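Sample intake — ABC transporter permease
Collected from: Planobispora longispora
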Amino acid sequence: MNGVIAGISYRSLLGRRRVWLLVLLPVVLLALAVLLRVIGADGERATVTLLQTFAIGTMLPLLGVIAGTGVIAPEIDDGTVIHLLSKPISRPVVAQTKFLVAASVVAAFAAVPTFAAAYLLVGLESGVASGFALAALVGGVAYAAVFMLLGVVTRHAVTIGIIYAVIWEGVVGNFVPGARRYSVQQWAQTVADQVSSSVFLTTDIGIGFAVSALVIVVVGAVFWAGRRLRSFSLTGDE
């Protein structure tokens, strides 16, 4: 990891309008949790449903799109990445640093609010809060890697990322049984299921497969992004 690149990336990601989108989604999650608490629908079933459908199913992939594409895609679009790549820094190191920045941002804006929302509703009951917080953490890391890679390989990363998050993760991954094995959010929920003893949380993917898939996706995406950056010439052409 390169500290200079990391600092620039954090300032770029958190100093633009993206930061308001990063904040908005967790605020909506916490607001929904407060609403459920106020109306008395704060049981374990309602909590698991909220965390599955909104925290992991909606908020997490969208945060991944915002942070993952935000650390690299704007620099490629405006040409400033050429200045970065002209420095004597290994391009895989650039990719790894960008990934770590995106992953840490997603983790902060996803895992912490997810734990807080669950704790507000059911406390530490059945390990729901810790299970889903861990799911948000590992799922967020995977999304950060995938969407950072997308930001490197295409100039339409945000559009493609949103389509992927909404259609594949939100619809296909939830309602098509065979597709669940290839859904990041389903892998993340499997991790949550291992930590939580809630009877309202069940998954049909083995933990061994889920963890292996998460590791392969993260390592593969970061490696591919580093290789892809090597194809950029200092004139901005590939």
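Post-analysis note: The chain has ten helices and no strands.
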